[in-house]
């Protein structure tokens, strides 16, 4: 039942009233109101309301049909507003305040200045001069740029006699392209610019070309969603978001082939189907100084953002969005995989980022109100962890974790504030990053230090006991540590080192392990000592945890070997998609090797499961398409990292040439 009734409105009127239509001033502050409490049918009776106070409530947006035709003054301070575009329904508004709404940014200020033509005061400041610039000068500049973009790139694409489908296609392509490529003003206003560009482009198509008819509702809905999600990120160095989209010269329907030189058995051919993947985007968005000539910046890490409303962080089929965080060079980017739009970008000019990781925390917003938010951690060469509240576009803190570079980081799946950092100082530290309060004050503390004998490159928590054991692939071996916090020792040596077969048929513990991931609760995939292969091995059958001596040497129980590139190039890491039982690893030629192991995991799970005698070939190899930049074909593409979302809808590959490649499962 709504908190707002006729009686309440009459009681809260200033002065009190006996008729709704006579109310001119209304105070509805401090009532814990949510958006659903604003009943349009009831508010439509406030025909003469001029002043409305909704401060100190829980509103996250405005309904689109409140129908307050005479509203002149509106106070929305201290709410949880995330969008201001619905305020356009109050065209006579002259004074507006919405301070202390943590999700609103300068971009929203510019939006209301454009939407509300009579607005004079915004958050207590006279904005008359600036608003006129936004409504007129800014609009003229953007209109000119939008028109020029059409003339240069799209006018000749539309045939003189065109079909409805051709109209739909050209409109979709133009709207997407113009929002990506038309820039104006400071990067801190890029979200507002994209919003206005889209609006101007639609008006241009409708008025000049008559392309407003037969609009595909689905396309419009997708574009709207993209626009709402787009936002400029916090930047220590404010620059434009620069991204170059590179289009493959030739695109085949299925841009993948089975492994060359390895004929599959009939059983494999019948039971393992190739996954149809189509290339969506090839983005150059980590350039140093936003240079379009930068094809040297190495990209290292990417992780999909978890969904806030997934209901359970443990369910892999619902725990991720289509937004992926990528890092390399001086930048961290958030990319919408479907549209290819760089939603946010964070830059530190003196940094080279090596790793990113997500966690979801419950923050106290104010008045003891709680809300879950995603926090992105990023770290690299400076040994500092940056903590970014993505929804608020705010880097709220940093942890000086190590004096040497941080190779990789990961959050605990059971303790959302526990962060592991693995450094070139040959230590892995466990931090409690704390939860920021409403003023973004937080306290980080170091809980553990795990001593390694060489640089840790990849780390993974054991799924069946993530609070007890951590596994690390290092420059000189694969190690495990006991990380239980109830033990008194803060600095700990490794508990065991695993030995693997090498090229000479012997076993070794001294080898570089530059790829490490769990395929399921027990099966581990690692890339290390043996040329041309990836090991698949069992955690439970290799390590029982009952040995009392530390620094034991243990033979890894190998379940299978996956056939991979014969390159001796290091640091080409691998990843897994546990829900689909897939393994992925890039190579030195720009290809992605994909292994569907669903036909093998059942036999491996039995206590007496036998090792696969023959190397398992890839289910398919996703070939790099022919790309051209400045008229020249890009060469020597190395895939440093490849990751899919948990449902294997999108595949993202990071390269040595500053290109983020995105494929989508057909």
Automatic annotation (TrEMBL):
Keywords for the protein's UniProt record, in alphabetical order: Centromere, Chromatin regulator, Chromosome, Cytoplasm, Cytoskeleton, DNA replication, Kinetochore, Leucine-rich repeat, Nucleus, Repeat, Telomere, WD repeat
Subcellular location: Chromosome, Centromere, Kinetochore; Chromosome, Telomere; Cytoplasm, Cytoskeleton, Microtubule organizing center, Centrosome; Nucleus
Region (Disordered): 210-273
Domain of life the protein comes from: Eukaryota
WD repeat residues: 399-433
Keyword Manganese: no
Leucine-rich repeat and WD repeat-containing protein 1 LRR domain span: 7-200
Cell division among keywords: no
Family of this protein: Belongs to the LRWD1 family.
Name of this protein: Leucine-rich repeat and WD repeat-containing protein 1
Organism: Crypturellus soui
Originating gene: Lrwd1
């Amino acid at each position: 039942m709504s908190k707002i009734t006729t009686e309440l409105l009459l009681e809260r009127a200033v002065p009190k009233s006996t008729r709704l239509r006579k109310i001119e001033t209304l105070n509805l502050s401090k009532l814990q109101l949510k958006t659903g409490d604003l009943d349009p049918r009831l508010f439509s009776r406030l025909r003469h309301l001029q002043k409305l106070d909704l401060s100190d409530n829980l509103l996250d947006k405005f309904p689109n049909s409140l129908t307050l035709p005479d509203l002149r003054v509106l106070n929305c301070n201290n709410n949880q507003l995330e969008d201001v575009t619905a305020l356009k329904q109050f065209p006579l508004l002259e004074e507006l305040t919405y301070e202390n709404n943590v999700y609103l940014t300068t971009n929203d200020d510019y939006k209301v200045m454009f939407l509300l033509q009579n607005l004079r005061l915004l958050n207590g400041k006279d904005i008359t001069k600036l608003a006129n610039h936004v409504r007129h000068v800014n609009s003229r500049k953007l209109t000119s740029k939008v028109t020029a973009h059409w003339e240069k790139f799209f006018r000749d694409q539309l045939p003189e006699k065109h079909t409805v489908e051709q109209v739909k296609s050209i409109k979709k392509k133009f709207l997407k392209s113009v929002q990506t490529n038309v820039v104006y003003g400071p990067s801190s206003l890029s979200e507002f610019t994209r919003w206005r560009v889209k609006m101007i482009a639609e008006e241009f198509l409708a008025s000049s070309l008559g392309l407003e008819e037969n609009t595909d509702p689905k396309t419009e809905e997708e574009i709207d969603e993209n626009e709402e999600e787009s936002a400029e990120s916090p930047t220590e160095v404010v620059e434009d978001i620069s991204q170059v989209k590179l289009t493959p010269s030739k695109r085949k329907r299925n841009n993948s082939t089975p492994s060359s030189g390895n004929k599959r058995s009939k059983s494999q051919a019948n039971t393992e189907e190739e996954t149809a993947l189509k290339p969506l985007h090839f983005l150059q968005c980590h350039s140093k100084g936003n240079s379009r000539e930068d094809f040297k910046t190495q990209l290292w890490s990417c992780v999909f953002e978890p969904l806030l409303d997934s209901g359970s962080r443990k369910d892999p089929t619902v725990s991720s969005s289509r937004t992926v965080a990528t890092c390399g060079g001086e930048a961290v980017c958030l990319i919408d995989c479907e549209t290819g739009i760089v939603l946010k970008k964070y830059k530190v000019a003196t940094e080279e980022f090596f790793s990113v990781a997500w966690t979801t925390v419950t923050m106290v917003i104010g008045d003891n109100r709680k809300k879950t938010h995603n926090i992105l951690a990023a770290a690299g060469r400076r040994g500092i962890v940056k903590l970014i509240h993505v929804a608020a576009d705010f880097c709220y803190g940093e942890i000086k974790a190590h004096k040497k570079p941080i190779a990789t980081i990961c959050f605990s799946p059971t303790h959302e504030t526990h962060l592991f950092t693995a450094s070139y100082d040959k230590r892995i530290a466990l931090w409690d990053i704390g939860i920021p309060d409403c003023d973004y004050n937080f306290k980080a503390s170091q809980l553990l230090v795990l001593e390694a004998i060489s640089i840790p490159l990849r780390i993974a928590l054991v799924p069946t006991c993530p609070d007890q054991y951590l596994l690390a692939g290092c420059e000189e071996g694969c190690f495990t540590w006991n990380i239980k916090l109830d033990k008194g020792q803060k600095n700990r040596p490794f508990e065991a080192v695993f030995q693997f077969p090498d090229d000479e048929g012997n076993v070794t513990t001294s080898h570089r392990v530059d790829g490490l991931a769990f395929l399921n609760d027990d099966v581990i995939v690692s890339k290390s000592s043996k040329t041309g292969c990836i090991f698949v091995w069992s955690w439970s059958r290799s390590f029982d945890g009952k040995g009392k001596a530390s620094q034991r040497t243990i033979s890894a129980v190998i379940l299978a070997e996956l056939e991979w590139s014969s390159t001796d190039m290091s640091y080409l890491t691998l990843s897994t998609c546990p829900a689909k039982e897939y393994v992925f690893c890039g190579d030195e030629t720009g290809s992605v090797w994909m292994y569907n192991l669903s036909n093998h995991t059942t036999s491996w799970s039995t206590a007496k499961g036998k090792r696969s005698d023959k190397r398992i070939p890839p289910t398919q190899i996703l070939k790099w398409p022919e790309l051209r930049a400045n008229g020249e074909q890009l060469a020597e593409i190395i895939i440093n990292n490849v990751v899919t979302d948990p449902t294997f809808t999108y595949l993202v590959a990071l390269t040595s040439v500053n290109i983020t490649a995105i494929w989508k499962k057909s």
